Amino acid sequence: MLIDKKISNFIDELASNSPTPGGGSVAALAGALGVALVSMVGNLTIGKKKYEDVEEDIKRVISSSEKLRYELSQLTEEDVKAFNNFMATYKLPKETEDEKKVRVEKIQESLIEAAKVPLKVAYKCLDIFSLSKEVAEKGNINVVSDAGVAVLMADAALESALINVKINLRMIKDEKVRTELSSSIKELLLKEKGQKEKVLKIVEERMK
Amino acid sequence: MLIDKKISNFIDELASNSPTPGGGSVAALAGALGVALVSMVGNLTIGKKKYEDVEEDIKRVISSSEKLRYELSQLTEEDVKAFNNFMATYKLPKETEDEKKVRVEKIQESLIEAAKVPLKVAYKCLDIFSLSKEVAEKGNINVVSDAGVAVLMADAALESALINVKINLRMIKDEKVRTELSSSIKELLLKEKGQKEKVLKIVEERMK
Fold first, then answer.
1. CB A5 within 8 Å of CB A83
2. Does residue B2 sit at the A interface (CB-CB below 8 Å)?
3. Closest approach of B107 to chain A, Cα-based (Å)
């Protein structure tokens, strides 16, 4: 598993001339880092007299953020797998007409799969916005900056994931799939709009 | 060292109710991830016939990005140390007037140090912009999306670092230091402005 690697080894592999791990895994990882910070702010808020009024809300946030953290961690791995599958299809035989046809079909199938992983990452990141907003508003004021970093990571992760959807989309030929992916991208961009700024404003206010 | 940890363990610790590692380390790590992707695009460009015209430029980029990658990886650790030093000063004795005075001084000193680490991170991230722009423009088109993720990470890292400067700045009393830090923040924001968008535009163009 990618997340079982040492950070230093992962960064070395990232920087190397191997195409995996790449930006897709970084997108999922950035999302996981962001949502882990939501959990951290939550965990430094619960059990404290000063924040007992929001205790139940924060517990609910932590339960969601921990679920997302697990899912995004898994998606770092799925991205590598999907990309390697895609690369493998290029090595399929292409001697006969039949082989050529099968190869092209398999390439297209693996491309669609490779586009769906970052799309999942993007949808998961969208869920981090409301969670980071809630910890920014209600969480322990001493770590409110971490709620800000959480939303910055979530937003960068979402946009990174979308770039990865787009680079695959570029080569997908199936018009129905193209339309579906394009409308998902539009939906995500629409839902993303202004979210980061909203959370950062709360963070800035509470840091004053 | 923080970067010697497994990714999964680091994310677990991040999510826990311990204030370190926190957003400061995530800022430096995000910067390291971003600049590692610059190196990756570079490494997948050099040695290829199609890109021999830009070979020397890309080699120069890689040499800078690898240096930054090392520095940002080190800064993940420095952030933890600076924060722990700050926390330790709170535990200094405060029985006598002298002790109280020394304690307040030490708290202030450690706060200034804790603000300087993310400031260093922010300046390093600024350097990633021009490098990611160069690989976005000249690098292997098959991995141009990774140049996009690189700049998104660099930008999120820079803004995350600035939030960490600000949360420390809030408690720093020395007016001279306050002014210096504030003007550094302003300078960084000014230099950051529009950089991410410029690189993303190139990436989008080349993905068409």
1. no
2. yes
3. 16
Residue showing tokens 């490779």: A114
DSSP characters for A38-49?
HHHHHHTTTT-G
Q: Are B21 and B68 in contact (CB under 8 A)?
A: no
pLDDT digits (tens, 9 = 90+) for B82-117: 999 999 999 999 999 999 999 999 999 999 999 999
Short-list A36, A58, A60, CA closest to A47: A58
If you measure CA to CA, which chain B residue comes closest to A47? B17
3-state secondary structure of A6: strand
How many angstroms separate the CA of residue B88 from the nearest CA in chain A?
16
- Give CA B190 to chain center in angstroms: 17
pTM above 0.90, yes or no: yes
Residues of A in contact with B150 (CB under 8 A): 23
Contacts of A206 in chain B (CB under 8 A): none
Asked if B163 lies within 8 A of A170 by C-beta distance, the reply is no
What backbone phi and psi angles, to 5 degrees, belong to A194?
Answer: 80, -10
Range B170-178 contact pairs with CB under 8 angstroms and sequence separation of 24 or more: B170/A207, B170/A208, B171/B111, B172/B108, B172/B111, B172/B112, B172/B115, B173/B108, B174/B108, B174/B112, B177/B112
* Exposure string over B67-96, b if 16+ CB within 10 A, otherwise e: ebbebbbbbbbbbbebbeebeebeeeeeee
Q: What is the DSSP letter of B170?
A: T
Inspect the interface and report whether the beta carbons of B19 and A144 lie closer than 8 Å.
Answer: no
Ramachandran bin of B194, using left for φ above 0, alpha for ψ from -120 to 50, beta for the remaining angles = left
Mean pLDDT by 10 residues, chain A (208 residues): 95 95 97 98 98 98 98 94 93 96 96 97 98 98 97 98 96 97 98 98 96
Q: How far is CA B102 from CA B68, B93, B112, in A?
A: 37, 9, 15
Look up the ipTM and state it: 0.97
- State the number of CA atoms in the 13 A half-sphere of A152 facing the CB: 28
Q: State both tokens at A38.
A: 């939501």
Tell me the backbone φ, ψ of residue B6, rounded to 5 degrees: -70, 145
What is the C-alpha separation between B173 and B108, in angstroms, rounded?
7
Question: Which residues 104-143 of chain B have a CB within 8 Å of chain A?
Answer: 142-143
